[in-house]
Amino acid sequence: MIIVNLDVMLAKRKMSSGELAERIGITPANLSILKTGKARAIRFSTLESICKELSCQPADILEYREEES
User: Fold this and answer.
1) CA-CA distances (angstroms) from residue 31 to 50, 58, 68?
2) Which pLDDT tens digit goes with each residue over 2-44?
3) What is the rounded distance in angstroms from the CA atom of residue 66 to the CA atom of residue 69?
4) Could you tell me the CA-to-CA distances from 61 to 1, 8, 34, 48, 69 in Å, in that order?
5) Distance CA 40, CA 34 (A)
């Protein structure tokens, strides 16, 4: 399973979800879907914009964990 750690990076950068959404040009609702891990896909261009604004790497936001049986 893929875990989205966007909330962790936002906290580290002291940035609100709304501010990030505005900076990268997506709706706060779509960012919330991504942040809560409910998104089924993310465009590389969106991931690139997030990484640029948060000065981080994709691995800082996305993490793979094996599902528990």
Assistant:
1) 10, 15, 27
2) 999 999 999 999 999 999 999 999 999 999 999 998 999 999 9
3) 9
4) 14, 8, 10, 11, 25
5) 8
